[in-house]
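Intended use. Records like the one below are meant for learning the mapping from a protein sequence to its folded structure. Do not use them to infer anything beyond what is encoded.
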Amino acid sequence: MDKRVTDFNVRLRTIRIRDLIVGIIITAIITGILTVIFPEISESDELFFIVLFLIGALMFVWALRGTRGLDQNIENIFEENNRKELLYVFAINLLFAFLFTFLISSIDIMTSLNDPTWISTGIDTVDIDSSVVILDAIGAIIFAPIVEELVFRGVLFNRLKIRTGIIPAMIISSVIFGLGHEFGGITSAILFGICMCILYTKTDNILIPMSVHFLNNLTATLLNVSGLDVLMTQMPWIVPCTILSIIGTVYLIKYIIKESKQLKKQHS
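Structure written out for the chain above:
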């Protein structure tokens, strides 16, 4: 990390993987100390991850202290072209995220119609304590987009593309990002990560992929809490939802292929 650099975007690109590893170790140590002082932190997975992400975010605040340009990055989010692409990428990724769920639910419904003895594998709703929901939402909506984008796009992707080239760096950083998610969501997380790399490279503004990440997690949380995610897997909503999800998947693949080719040409 080059502390002499005062531009926010450039300073972020100078953070090395070894700097990141040191930051992770310090974050883990501080979190461990806090769990000893405050045992209730370790008693709640949601609270533990909030503390972990908060300390991680503070590590980046420390690393990027004294830089300028963050205010310009915020303004760039609302520029028409950036705003439109941001919302477009958010929409197609969200639609793809539900593809496998909708397809499995559709097959389940069609099978049950043809076979009355078929036992449905539909999604069950589970009552969760409201405090757990709130803590989980805070971690997923606020801290996860900030820390994950800084780690996987701001540092890992930036450093890998110096050594491997832009396309391999997009794939490697996104696969590592995807492996940190639940098994059923690994594929969508990998493609989401690739899209975030594309947005970040095109704009050199880490706040733009952060914004998409925020919208994605906010929407997923609201759908889950409201029960709409379950409703969408039932008749008659499953039909239009599946169609929209397939359309979104097609546009997602086209977006990744088109933008990857352009970025490869620009950075070859």
